[in-house]
Amino acid sequence: MVTDGSAGHGRAVVQEFAAAAHRAVGTVTDVADHVQVEAAADEVEPVPGPFDVWVNNTMASVVAGFRRLTPPTSSGPPASRTWVSSTAPGRR
After folding, report:
1. How far apart are CA 45 and CA 48, in angstroms?
2. Which InterPro entries match (predicted)?
3. CA-based nearest residue to 38, from 1, 80, 9
């Protein structure tokens, strides 16, 4: 599973996997929505089988000046929820 596989580092990872003859399935998913992430994992996983690698290459963020960042805006529920929901389906 590679998040944000359509651009930048995610695309490079996808291209490396493709060059090594691995199968790929694409889906559009909002990684900030755990329901969509779980649905995407359920849709994609049956094609190659259980995930061996989960490349979490995308994120949701809060834009603010450095001095205005507080724990709730820099590491609170949105950040932790995105990380957990983006990785939970692939964990063994």
Report:
1. 6
2. NAD(P)-bd_dom_sf
3. 1
Q: What angle do CA 2, 25, 90 make, to 5 degrees?
A: 45
**Contact predicate 13/55, CB 8 Å:** yes
| Spatial separation of the C-alpha atoms in residues 70 and 1, rounded to whole Å | 31
DSSP state of 79: H
- pLDDT tens, N- to C-terminus, the chain (92 residues): 777 777 788 888 888 888 998 877 778 888 777 788 888 888 887 877 777 777 777 766 656 565 665 555 445 445 444 444 455 555 55
Which amino acid makes up residue 91?
Answer: R
> How far is Cα 63 from Cα 91, in angstroms, rounded to an integer?
29
**Can you say whether the dihedral through the CA atoms of 65, 71, 77, 81 is positive or negative?**
positive
